[in-house]
Amino acid sequence: MKEAILAEMERNGQIYFLANRIHKIPRLIDELHSLKTKARIAVLHGRMADKQIIWTMREFRAHKFDILVSTTIIENGLDLSNVNTLIVEDSTRFGLSQAHQLRGRIGRGKNEGFAYFLYPTHKLNEKAAERLEALERFSWLGAGLEIAKRDLEIRGAGNILG
Of 44, 26, 12, 32, whose CA–CA distance to 87 is shortest? Predict the structure, then answer.
C-alpha cells in the first residue's frame, strides 16, 4: 500500500481507498497514518451530512487531500481525472461487476490508472479467487462485456423466468 500511495503522490495524483464498512474507516485511517507517507486524508461515506459530503468532495477535487477513504459511494458517477489509484480494502466482499465498476472510477485522465484489490488470504474462497482472476485477466478498456460474461459463468444465470 505504501508503495502504491507514494507512486501516485510522486506523479501528483490522488487515491481512492475503499473501505467496505463505515466502522472500519477509523482503523484504516490509523493504518494509513502508520505508513508515514505524509498523505493528506479525507473521509467520505453516505451517513455524513449532505453539506459535509459536498465540502469533502470540493476539497478533494481541489487537491487539498491526497487520499479519499470512502465506502462505495464513490461508484456513483464521480469523475475526477486526477484520481488514478484505487485501493480496495477487502475485495472479497464485492461482486465482479461491482469491482469492475469501481475500477472504472480511476484513470479517467491522461495518466494510467492502477487498482489494488486487497484480500485476506486465510479466507479467500474459490469464487472470490475467480472474480479477482477475472479482474486481472480482463483489464483493458472496454472489457465490460467479457467481465459480464465471466460474472455470469461464476454466479450462474439463475432463474430467468422465476
Answer: 32
Please identify which residue in the block is written with the cell numbers 461464476.
154
Q: At what angle do helices 96-103 and 144-155 cross, to 10 degrees?
A: 160
CA nearest to 116, candidates 61, 76, 107, 23:
107
Our measurement of the distance from residue 74's CA atom to the centroid of its chain's CA atoms, rounded to an integer in Å, reads 8
pLDDT profile of the chain (162 residues), mean per 10: 96 94 93 96 94 95 96 80 92 78 80 88 77 76 71 66 52
Question: For residue 28, which amino acid is it?
Answer: L
Strand order in the sheet with 114-117: 41-44, 67-70, 14-18, 83-88, 114-117
Half-sphere exposure at residue 96, Cβ-oriented, CA atoms within 13 angstroms: 27
C-alpha cell at 58: 470540493
63 vs 34: CA distance, rounded Å: 22
- Amino acid residing at 55: W
